[in-house]
Each structure stands twice: as C-alpha cells, then as structure tokens.
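Quick one:
INPUT:
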C-alpha cells in the first residue's frame, strides 16, 4: 500500500509542476483521445461485421485498452473503406 501512495504522490507532484498552459494542453489531448475512443466504439457497434477487418469482439478491447493507437488503428486499418 505504501508503494501505491508513493506513486500517487509522484504523479501529483508531476502534475503540480506543470504550468497552466501545459495542464490545459494535457486536458485538450485527453478530451480528444476520449472522444476518438467513444466515436470508434460507437462506429464499431453500428458497423456491419462484413465491413470490419477481423472480429468485432477483438476490436473492442483494442479500442478500449490500447489508448490512442487502438482507436486510430481501428479507424485506419480495422474498418474497410
């Protein structure tokens, strides 16, 4: 438990060390990433499986767990044009 508190404290210290502009930039990037992930998951749910490269069940955790590369990969590679 003490190790986790050290990690959390370290993250808080790093965040507090950022300037206001850097915090804003990080927030904008997080918002874009969240919106992209939501769009990709919604698109995956609504798209016919014949228009997807690979099974839908495999793309769901990739989009959800692989951060930005997951949803970008789905949109660029996973979805047939």
């Amino acid at each position: 438990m003490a190790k986790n508190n050290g990690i959390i404290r370290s993250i808080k210290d790093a965040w507090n060390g950022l300037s206001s502009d850097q915090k804003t930039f990080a927030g904008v990037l997080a918002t874009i990433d969240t919106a992209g992930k939501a769009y990709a998951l919604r698109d995956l749910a609504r798209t016919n499986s014949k228009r997807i490269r690979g099974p839908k069940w495999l793309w769901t955790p990739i989009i959800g767990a692989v951060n930005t590369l997951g949803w970008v990969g789905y949109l660029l590679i996973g979805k047939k044009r």
